[in-house]
Amino acid sequence: MAFDRNLLLEMLHDAIGENELFLVGLTVSDSVMPKITVILDGPNGLGINECALISRRLNRRIEEHYGEEAVYSLEVTSPGADQPLSDPRQYPRHVGRTLALKLQDGTEKSGTLTAATPEGVEIEEVIKSKTKKTTLPAAFYPFGDIKEAKVVISFK
Fold first, then answer.
1. Long-range CB contact pairs, 119-125, < 8 A, 24+
2. Containing domain of residue 123, as a range?
3. Least packed by Cβ within 10 Å: which of 53, 92, 139, 154?
4. Residues 27 and 66 in one domain
5. Is 49 exposed, middle or buried (0-12, 13-18, 19+ CB in 10 A)?
6. Which of 68, 6, 75, 79 is nearest to 34 (CA)?
7. Is residue 156 part of a domain?
8. Which of 115, 100, 74 lies closest to 153, judged by CA?
């Protein structure tokens, strides 16, 4: 069975409703038993109860449209800690944490996220030498200049 991605997006939008959650990713595998994977996020992250609620709502809509006989696997989840940030709305809750940026021009920057706006991010870059670390004044990077951004996980 082939699932229409655009129809799934509409169903998902209905399933989210008035919630502040937003879509980060939607994939549908082409296999004997298709797997629909929905990755959601929100201003304060995404809890397991929210995942379960959206999953139930989306499952109900899929069954209404494709029939109860439709065979598929549905996973509603949040982005993993190791996943790149892919939506500007993901950045504000990470202010104060360390980000690793890969820019479109091939350069890489790492430092503390000091601000996130709808246009881009401000980073206090940390330069490491053999004997010391130097923190540079905050610099602004528009989202269009960012190829990839990841939160640096620290276990200190």
1. 119/143, 120/144, 120/145, 120/146, 121/91, 121/146, 121/149, 123/99
2. 88-151
3. 154
4. yes
5. exposed
6. 75
7. no
8. 100
